Amino acid sequence: MPIIEITSLSSPGVEVFATLTEAQLRNKLEPSQGIFIAESPKVINVALNAGYEPVSLLCEQRHIERDAKEIIARCGDIPIYTGKRTLLAELTGYTLTRGVLCAMRRPTLSTVAELCRQAHRIAVIHGVVDTTNIGAIFRSAAALGIDAVLLTRNSCDPLNRRSIRVSMGSVFLVPWTWLDSPLPSELHQYAFKTAAMALTDQSIPIDHPQLKKEEHLALVLGTEGDGLPDDIIADADYVVRIPMSHQVDSLNVAAAAAVAFWEVRDRSPFLDF
User: Fold this and answer.
1) Is 139 strand, coil or helix?
2) If you ran DSSP here, which 8-state letter would residue 142 be given?
3) Spatial contact of 261 and 145, defined as CB atoms under 8 Å apart
4) Got the DSSP string for 79-138?
């Protein structure tokens, strides 16, 4: 594979790692699929294992024969841009984690129907724009048996670089797609009941036995500040809360997601120790 030495910030071919915004990565380079950036050898390996296609690598010189060696061997005949640590940090605007970035093609997303067909537990993310929260939700979803994640289009892109990093590559492990509306009418056609996470007088605790009995359940999560819109709460089959103590009213959405995923999980894939 070609190893290309970078000597300046304007070296051709490195635009994908430096000057393009997340929106441009999604739409400009590959209108049909787009590009995203995966950071660190561990995360890149997770993406490769999941079948994602690498386009190019950006790697510190000292890591070509060290942390990036396995990645390079797996990526085939793609360009590898390299340079000194200080130059690459100036190019990207941050110090590379373990010295390597990989530009990868975005996959063609499944439809909502395709994801729901084989799922029993799904998470619906409504309007969550914080990249850290999105990454943490995906990590919990992968660990705690969520079959798929659906996101409203006003939510953060799961393939944002920081979301990928926070998730430790879990965004590559849980199927996901965009959802035009999280209202029950959208999900009932796939036999799902919806459980909106919200504090209301009608809320039931997350450990309510009825929730565990539902064969197909969608947990709907909103933003920390505004929460879920009133119409989604009103139309949900259940409104669910996590019982709190010490006069705490709620948890961060990522923490709340982890608690909820654990409580309503399909226990069959898990081993009891």
Assistant:
1) helix
2) H
3) yes
4) -EEEE-HHHHHHHHSSPPGGGEEEEEEPPPPPPHHHHHHT-SEEEEE-S---HHHHHHHH
In this structure, are residues 147 and 179 in contact, taking their beta carbons and an 8 Å threshold?
A: no
| Structure confidence by residue, pLDDT tens digits, 103-152 | 999 988 999 999 999 899 999 999 999 999 999 999 999 999 999 999 99
Beta bridge partners of residue 60, listed in sequence order: 83
Give the amino acid at 8.
S
Closest CA to 100 of 160, 35, 49, 54: 54
42: exposed, middle or buried (C-beta count within 10 Å: 0-12, 13-18, 19+)? Answer: middle
Q: Which residues contact 221 (CB under 8 A, 6 or more apart)?
A: 123, 124, 125, 126, 128, 137, 197, 228, 253, 256, 257, 260
CB 260 within 8 A of CB 197: yes
